[in-house]
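note to self: dont lose this again. the chain is below, predicted strucutre after it. 311 aa total, dont forget to put it in the shared folder this time
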Amino acid sequence: MITEFDVTTGETPKRLDIFLCHREPGMSRSGLQRLIELGRIRLNAQIVKPSQKIKPGDRITMDTPQPGPLLVNDEQVPLKILYEDDVLLIVNKPARVVVHPTSGNWTGTLMNALLAHLEKKDQTRTTKDHQRTPGIVHRLDKDTSGVMVIAKTHQAHRALAAQFEKHTIHRTYEALVWKVPEKDEDVIDMAIGRDQHHTQMVSGDSSDPKRAVTSYQVKKRFGDEAAYLLLFPRTGRTHQLRVHLVSLGCPILGDQTYGGPKVRTIKGLEIPRMMLHARMLGFQHPISGHYLEHEADLPPDMQEVCNALGK
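---
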């Protein structure tokens, strides 16, 4: 699967591997470095080192292996489809499923499932119609469940991407957090970017911070030990909700990357994964212009933790 893109005007010179870490948050820096060294990622059609500096106007070509069908425990897992038409899909992504194939993780991803789904549908189409490929417009972290939209055509992908870029998408997330925010509702306005010292993490300590805004509401308190929040991201930065909640002193339960070992258990209860769920997604249909809005109920594992905390 070959992807090409140009380095845009205004981009500051930086190492190729670091630049790609920012652009492809689902891929590790070490995985990107291996692809560069194998010549699968090229700069201006040339094989270069990961340390090569990029500059505006450069063209980057990424050749990533084509993934196979989605297999989990040797059985194909069906997609949880909330809505589908000729140009897009809306799905309820389960937790523990990676969205996009990465180095060392080419199977068992949402993209694999999408490819398998579209291949089945294309069996009834003519050859010239076999131009539908799933376009990932936005991502959810591996441990985050919930609503995602996927484009089937290039036109739909461009239109949806523009809405995300302009921050006109409506989103609601649910989270269970450690401790309780001081305010019942507030707006977090804190610029974030790739951390200067830990490139796989995001923080305010970044050489290239971007504005990030999240509003939240505390819907339920579990004493002083935990809370159930609704989150409304107004921007869509990588790890935005996770980092913003840490800034309140309330990391998401189960998010050991940002919350450390203290969020693994609470009241003697083992937290099975990061307690974050994309509840609702609303946007303008890329072709008709009609507003679409779909929700996915709180998944059973998060509901069980809620029930246990409420006892």
